[in-house]
Amino acid sequence: MFFSPTGIILVLAISAVLHSAFYSENSIYAQFQRCGSRWFNWTPVHKVIESGYHKVTKATGRPFVVCWWARDYLVMPPKYLHDVRTADGTHLNFFHSISDAFHLHTTVGDLYTARTSQRMIDVVKRGLNPLLPQITPILINEIDYSLEHLLEGGSEWQCVKAMELFAEITHRTATRVLICDDLCRNEDFIKQSMRFTKSIFVTALVIANLYLGVFRCLLAWPISLVHGWYLHKCMNILRPHVEKAIQECTADTKKPNAIYWTISLFPETVDKGHHDRFLKELLHSLWAGSSAPGGMITEVVWQLLINDGAIDALREEAREALSQHGWSEKMLNSLHLQDSFIRETNRLFPTGSMTCVRTVLGQPFQFDDGLILPVGTRFGFPAQAIQHDHDALDNPAEFDGFRFVRRGVDDRSVASGEKQWAASSVDTSYLPFGYGNHVCPGRFFAIRLIKLIITKIILEFDIKWDRKGKDRPTPINIEGQFVPNMQQKIYLKRRQDL
What we know:
CATH 1.10.630.10; 12 strands; 19 helices; alpha+beta; 3-stranded antiparallel β-sheet
């Protein structure tokens, strides 16, 4: 009966009734205007968020509610960014939000909700970031290898799918430091780990878009089985390398990769009972550090091809910087045009329409104006809508690749050494990496990786496409997330005048 059309309809009807019964009209979400449907949006979520921003937030200054990843979220006005900026990460928690949205507990348990989840952040902050200048030659070496491995030799034009190429280059290069040098050229691990990282998003998408109602959390477990299989295949390949590193690691060991940083910063991870968690931390850090940069590079390349003269300007800047400083920190810091171009691309075409997504934990959170969010409240900020409509910028909805070069002429370094208008800096008009205490710690690595790959491509290759007109290839829009067009091809030819 239950597998007949009548049975399926009956199950869905019961699910809807139960969902309505459990949805309290006294909840925080019921106190604000809803944009889009609670059940299913025919309009893409990013359009619902954009519409809510203009019709509700700008008109009334109040939050509104959307259904995002099959859960209700408050979408907050930008005026609340100041309050969130200094809030403690354990009070307004990102990891809890991402675990819930993607149902990660089905494969990694409490990896994102236990106290030890902070280790993934600390490995980036205290292990990776201080060594970024020293690992630049390592990244360059891996980019060179990836280009040689993935592209044919010779001086003829080669046709490639851009997103596919840049995603693999970033994944291979990130593996070198976020896992280890033994596996970044292991073809089996690269294949399996790319399947693993892709399956996180695909699995979450299936769970969110099937009409499962109150059965969603229960059915998330069997739906996640394939993703879990990819995870364990990667763990099995990675395990002997971690065990070898544990045996060889001493106080003097200085290998520049996340395995050794984790062992050094958290000695308890050497205990065998912690190994599975250690492996999962490494693989999820690889997902976080490799997925977004590939898409960001692809979007930068789209804009380089759309905007006349942009490639020549960035190529000349890179050539001059390289001749003066070699592949060094000074060279990267001299790429002002490229840095501005990356920031502007990331501002207008971010990887998602929402940012600073958090869940209130422990105790209610009160904003300066008296608004109180109860424990368990999920919220975020409409990053794309804010970035397209900000008073701090002239013509914010238009692409101007070099706008931040002009703004940075009188830039003053802040205490952290960041520049206000750098691609890795954040402010209320630029939120793709989050904001305040909740800013992404891996943004410096991401921007460095993007700069190195873009510089290699424009210096060593001519680039073109057969696209007519000046329009951007249509991205894939899924649950308010943006993936560059997967089918768009570009043509690359090795330059002779290096």
